[in-house]
Amino acid sequence: MHSRLSTALRILLQLLIVGPVILVTPFAIWIGIGTLLLPSQWSHWGVSKTLGDGLGWLGIIALYMSIFTPVEAIHKRKGLRYCIVSLGFCGVIAAIAIPFENSDPTAFLARSGFFAIHFLFGALIVGIWNLIRIFKRAPNP
């Protein structure tokens, strides 16, 4: 009972921290797939925009996988662990690239305000939190 309650509280807290990401998830997936399917548009979008759009949706998928997948399942399945970590790395690249879309990350954060800070850093905080959970040694039976 205690384990289920702590799991539910962890999931709820992580969803609160990533807050705004849930609002853009469908749009990010749609744009991300479009970016991969239409590479001819990369040339005029710029590298930062392409990385942010093309990799961000993969990071969002990893974020939700890391939130909702039990850590025991991740420890037991090496392929699942590699998948979550690899997609999460794509998300980190996107989170670094997004503020540079207009060549000035401070202007991006100033223009976008709290929403952008919560959007980017909330996802990074939860991603790091879950990476620690994933790579923490599993308890001995």
SSE-based structural type: mainly alpha
What Rg, in angstroms, do the CA atoms define?
A: 16 Å
Strand segment tally: 0
Tally the structural domains: 1
Main pleated-sheet profile = none
Could you say which overall geometry the principal axes of the C-alpha atoms support? globular
The number of helical segments is 7
Description:
It is built from seven helices and no strands. With 141 residues, it is mainly alpha-helical. The protein has one domain. The two termini are 19 Å apart.
Strand-helix topology:
Blueprint: H1 2-18, H2 20-37, H3 42-45, H4 47-68, H5 71-76, H6 78-97, H7 105-135
What distinguishing features does this structure have?
141 residues, mainly alpha
Short description:
This protein has helices at residues 2-18, 20-37, 42-45, 47-68, 71-76, 78-97, 105-135. It is mainly α. Helix 6 packs antiparallel against helix 7 (105-135).
